[in-house]
Design a protein that fits this description.
Neuraminidase, globular, Cytochrome Bc1 Complex, Chain D, domain 2, five-stranded antiparallel sheet, six-stranded mixed sheet
Length: about 650
């Protein structure tokens, strides 16, 4: 060890003079310095490029410099930058007037900003605007600015107040079948989020709201329009919550809200309801969101109360949940009338005492439930079980379970229903059920792009050998899908009209039958387009999509039946190949069918309703599936 150290020291002593000589030689040399290695050159070029990007300003695109606007509606700033934002980078949008500082009004992670709402709070005049790129700090402040500010542009707004919107025509909000007419009946000014409507003993229409307020609507001149409304109960004491059931019995008004049923009466004759009496409480309520005791109905001096389950899809641990209860009008003698329901929102009796109730489907998936089941309409008989939590719809129903009258698409959110026992409507609508489908709202169905519901449907009732009913359903009143219109309840008046309460606007619509004034156009004379024969594998793929759907998109056959003699929700496509090229000018058969699949509301066949067809095939089917589906549809030949 000592020898090794001595050797190293001796070596260093020997090399030091040589090292000094080499340094001096390099200092005196006139030979140019060698360039850096290629990797260093590449790194330096990348750094220079990044530096240039960070220093460059965004380019302002619109509005055009000097543009003038009458009002702020729809004014949107648009710009672009040299690359996408990264990390905590944001666009700092700056808008000012005159010589004011160029302060930012918002940060944006996209290259546009709708200025409408901001402008509403400013004075009219000329506005300048610009954009820079900043890095946002963890404290919510600007950490640093990483681009130059864009050269400003300007525009002028002469009036910063929004124009009064033009009200939509009723036909643009709700559509009904040919021969029917729909008109607004009432819209109580102070009402918000109605849940139930009912006719009182004097034939006046009442409305209950979610918060527990009660309104009465007066049609004093008999013109079938309630020209005035009055709030006769203001729940300022917060007696009610999740109030969804309204009914009359022996002249007394009953309300069902979270966990209880109460009566309301006018104790001093001033026309206002001021005496609230709870007749039944302790009902299972809101242990799972929106599951509670719901709509109520009377028959044969008994009160019927549906109660939702305490879970999304089981288990059931209490006989008083997931059931329809029956009790006396004073709340005594509570008993289970029928069970096996997930969340029956409402119920209705026929004139002969047959009870019907809807049922909402589960909307949370886990290891015990891997799909979204259908919703149901049930014919409810005493002592029967209706499947929950073991069976949904017809699938899985055992001999001990009652199958539904009909299945609906998942997440339509069945709400109010009414039995039609009048004769104003034509015979096909007699002795059936009208049901409101409030529409998809739960997160899981929305994540899967489901937009079912937002309509009123009619269900036929066909007797079965075992004393039950089976039925078919069809769209009756279709509400505008591009806005948040949601029918929440329906009721049949003594006049035979159907009254529909709409949740978002608190409007009640009245539907009557006025006759077939308009004759549907004659179908076009078949002049088939020559369509080439497709390979068998493409036809097979198209048939599979038509019959089974794909990527969470429903099967076409669920609406477009393959038997042209049967009426489905949509027209039969058998034989469409012979007339598809005549449906829309300038569109051949292939383009027409493809456009009808990808943009279903663009071309509506007379006699059918817009909006019900699944709207998202264009995003859920691949291009190959779409092409194969078109080929299959155009292969469906009509019988000679």
């Amino acid at each position: 060890m000592i020898g090794s150290v001595c050797f190293l020291m001796t070596y260093e002593d020997l090399m030091r003079p040589l090292f000094i000589a080499l340094v001096l030689l390099a200092a005196c040399s006139t030979t140019p310095t060698a360039p850096p290695p290629p990797a260093d050159q590449i790194a330096a070029a990348i750094a220079a490029t990044q530096s240039a990007e960070l220093e460059s300003a965004p380019t302002l695109l619109a509005p055009a410099n000097g543009a003038a606007f009458d009002n702020p509606a729809g004014i949107t700033l648009n710009w672009e930058w040299t690359r996408p934002l990264q990390g905590r980078e944001m666009y700092d949008v700056r808008v000012w007037q005159g010589d004011a500082p160029h302060y930012g009004i918002t940060w944006s992670d996209t290259s546009q900003f709708d200025l409408t709402d901001w402008l509403r709070h400013q004075q009219p005049g000329e506005f300048s605007w610009s954009v820079a790129v900043i890095v946002s700090g963890e404290d919510g402040q600007v950490e640093r600015t990483i681009s130059r500010e864009a050269p400003p542009m300007s525009f002028t707004v002469t009036n910063t107040a929004l124009p009064t919107p033009t009200p939509l025509a009723v036909s643009d909000i709700v559509q009904v079948p040919p021969g029917f007419e729909v008109r607004p009946y009432a819209q109580p000014e102070l009402a918000s989020l109605p849940t139930s409507i009912a006719f009182g003993p004097d034939g006046t229409l009442y409305m209950l709201t979610y918060s527990g307020d009660i309104f009465v609507m007066h049609d004093t001149d008999g013109d079938e329009f309630a020209e005035s409304s009055q709030r006769i109960y203001l729940d300022d004491a917060e007696h009610f919550y999740h109030a969804v059931g309204l009914a009359f019995h022996d002249g007394v008004l009953y309300v069902s809200d979270s966990g209880k049923v109460s009566t309301l009466e006018d104790s001093d004759g001033d026309g206002m309801l001021d005496a609230v009496t709870t007749i039944a409480d302790g009902l299972i309520s809101l242990r799972y969101p929106d599951h509670s005791n719901n709509g109520i109905a009377f028959y044969d001096d008994k009160l019927y109360v549906p109660v939702g389950a305490a879970t999304d899809h089981g288990p059931v641990t209490n006989d008083m949940e997931a059931a329809i209860l029956r009790m006396n009008p004073d709340g005594s003698d509570v008993e289970v009338f029928a069970s096996g329901f997930r969340n029956p929102y409402d119920l209705a009796f026929s004139p002969s005492g047959e009870l019907f109730a809807g049922d909402n489907n589960p909307d949370s998936l886990d290891d015990t439930l891997h799909y979204l089941p259908p919703e149901e309409l049930n014919y409810v008989r005493e002592g029967r079980h209706y499947g929950f939590p073991d069976a949904f719809g017809f699938i899985g129903t055992s001999d001990e379970d009652e199958p539904p009258v009909v299945e609906f698409f998942p997440s339509v959110a069945t709400t109010g229903l009414a039995y039609y026992g009048s004769d104003m409507f034509p015979p096909p609508y007699h002795d059936g059920i009208f049901m409101a489908l409030w529409g998809t709202a739960a997160p899981t169905p929305q994540e899967r792009s489901l937009t079912n519901g937002r309509m009123v449907v009619f269900v036929t009732l066909d007797p079965t050998e075992d004393g039950g009913y089976r039925g078919e359903w069809e769209v009756f009143a279709w509400f505008r899908q591009s806005s948040d219109y949601r029918p929440i309840d329906v009721i049949v008046g003594e006049d035979g009209a159907l009254y529909i309460a709409e949740w978002t606007t608190s409007t009640v619509y009245r539907v009557t039958y006025v006759g077939m004034d308009a004759v549907l156009p004659e179908p076009p004379t078949p002049t088939p387009e020559i369509i080439p024969t497709a390979p068998a594998e493409i036809l097979a793929l198209g048939e599979s999509v038509y019959l089974n759907g794909g990527q969470d998109a429903p099967a076409c056959v669920s609406c477009h039946l393959l038997d042209p003699n049967l009426r489905g929700l949509g027209p039969s496509l058998v034989g469409l190949r012979d007339i598809a090229n005549q449906r829309v000018n300038s569109l051949g058969a292939v383009d027409y069918v493809l456009r009808s699949i990808t943009h279903p509301n663009e071309y509506i066949v007379p006699g059918y309703n817009a909006g019900y067809m699944y709207q998202d095939y264009i995003h859920h089917l691949t291009d190959d599936q779409l092409d194969a589906l078109v080929v299959y549809v155009l292969s469906l030949e009509a019988d000679e």
